[in-house]
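Entry:
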Amino acid sequence: MNVRRRLISATAVTAATALGLGALSACSSDSAATGNTDKFDVVASFYPMAFLAEQIGGDHANVTSLTEPGQEPHDLEISTKQRAQLEEADAALFLKGLQPAVDEAVSQTGIKTKIDAASLTSLEDHGGTEHAHEGEEGHAEEEEHARDPHIWLDPVKYAEVAEGVGKAFEKADPDHAADYKKNTEALVKKLNGLDGDFENGLKNTKTKVFFTNHAAFGYLAERYGLTQEAISGLDPESEPSAARVRELQQEAKADGVTTVFYETLVSDKTAKTLAKDAKLKTDVLDPLEGVTDKSRGDDYFQVMEANLKALQAALGAK
């Protein structure tokens, strides 16, 4: 897809022809190994971005994720190979503020189409400036860093991002614009259906408060009239203070909280300790930063439906 890459490939083929057939086949396999394709090549920062790119790009896109399944996205460091992938891609789809290493790498590349999902919807502060992500060295004066990046856990905000990504794909690859538009409309329709499932499923519950390992579910809580209380902040690796743990134990009694949620990609030790001390149950509420064999579903929609069931059980849905 990339014009510059095609020119390089053509030169390589001419040279290989002069050297003979064996050289040509070696060159072809090298090209395949680097992921160069004639499709619209998109490098996505992590699973929620890759899922959007695959759903919207369909058969026309070749999508690569910088974050491996099972890898905690907040901790990602960009390798030399990944920088090369970014340079050769037709588009980069990322979420500014979630992965500082990705933000830096994308800003340093000459890639023409840079799609920042954070610019396609409105971000809010759910964790407070004291819970800025790792890599910011505790400095909270830059307000954007305190913004909660977990927009994909709100189906409505995720649909807004999908619409923006669709438009960006149409502009970057106009030959397939009609298909991107159609795929985007189908995805948004499914996300609207998911929003309806959550709204109806969480309308009548015994309690509106839930405890999580880290503050990933602020948008979801706000959308459906719930209150998220996180053991740690927006950063899943931060440790809670003893005072915070005592506060949560008291709140559990006051608000009828039954369950402490933990997640698949981060240690469940703190959540289970709190649950044991406060005599609460534990369950998984998946922030969907990556899908692995441990996930309760094979894709975004299946895992979100599993999250809905877990919330309904914990909140005492009627």
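The chain has eleven helices and eight strands.
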